[in-house]
Amino acid sequence: MTFSRRVRLFMIGLGLGTIVSWMMLGDRWNMDWAFNGRVHKRMHNTLTKATPAAQAALDAKGLTLATLKDSIDRFDVGFWSTTRTPDSLYYRMQGTLAGKALELRVSVMRDYRVDSTATLLSITDR
Questions:
Q1: Can you give the pTM of this predicted structure?
Q2: Which terminus of the chain has a lower count of CB atoms within 10 Å, N or C?
């Protein structure tokens, strides 16, 4: 079998595999397995509390925690500034919401089986 035939067969198999995978997965084709997607999914599901200072900042900006939670996918997770302690993770997220550039500071427990809630620590303008 020549090299060009092997390449053609490989490309046909790759194309058919891609089409079959897309047909099986459909709209569920996503990147939630990557770091960014996992953090966004966790924040969307568990962001339920805000510190009093963060709640006051949300009220001053005319936002609610539910609005912030629903639009968490628009924020970039700053892994370079994530702080780790033995029991918690502190994420810094930057993004735009309602035409305002914001920076969020969110705390989650490292082991989500202990406490699965995320807490908004602060929200500031960038």
A1: 0.73
A2: N
